[in-house]
Description:
Helix content: 40-55%
Radius of gyration: 20 Å
Distance between the termini: 34 Å
Number of strands: 11
Shape: elongated
Strand content: 15-25%
Mean pLDDT: 91
Structural class: alpha+beta
Low-confidence stretches: none
Number of helices: 13
Largest sheet: 7 strands, mixed
Order of helices and strands: HEHEHEEEEEHEEHEHHEHHHHHH
Amino acid sequence: xxxxxxxxxxxxxxxxxxxxxxxxxxxxxxxxxxxxxxxxxxxxxxxxxxxxxxxxxxxxxxxxxxxxxxxxxxxxxxxxxxxxxxxxxxxxxxxxxxxxxxxxxxxxxxxxxxxxxxxxxxxxxxxxxxxxxxxxxxxxxxxxxxxxxxxxxxxxxxxxxxxxxxxxxxxxxxxxxxxxxxxxxxxxxxxxxxxxxxxxxxxxxxxxxxxxxxxxxxxxxxxxxxxxxxxxxxxxxxxxxxxxxxxxxxxxxxxxxxx
Length: 259
């Protein structure tokens, strides 16, 4: 793992350390590095307030920064050909009936990681020392190919209902197994997906379709009721037969064609 850390990440960590702030590499890059997949994304988190992050990145990237997400704690920068995003420790959740999440900044790394969608994405690497931090067993879940949430799935899906669809998307993308307690929570809470914007749902659905196991994920989405919230036609196929080849079940046939 130490040899795999991009030099630009270590360089950025040095800039934060010089300013008196720790920096952690998080998200998809950490997950993908651990399973041997390439990842172009370099996402970082820090306890530094967004204004401090802005100062550090401005000097590090010689002014080549973006602050459109600073209200939510995120500042982006590009140095040479590499783009990075640094986000202050935070939590976010949807209030009842709201389509917009409420963001609050946190002071502890574990708090930030606990509010991430799944344990396999709740891993961090402390820089520049290159120490893996795994408070919720994500490394074991990667090894066992499991989709679990850091906190209870009811809390996780209450914070962001799109995570219900994302669970199935990750199952498709990685051919992982969604754990029973996660599926039970989706059965109980799938109606909450209605507060999520169509654009966010579309993006997750597109990623699901190009994964390793899209038919298995869509079969699960139908079984737990989630498909009714964004693709109700899918469940209705179970009631139909091919009018020409009557021995074929339209639902099963459609999923086979998808694969």
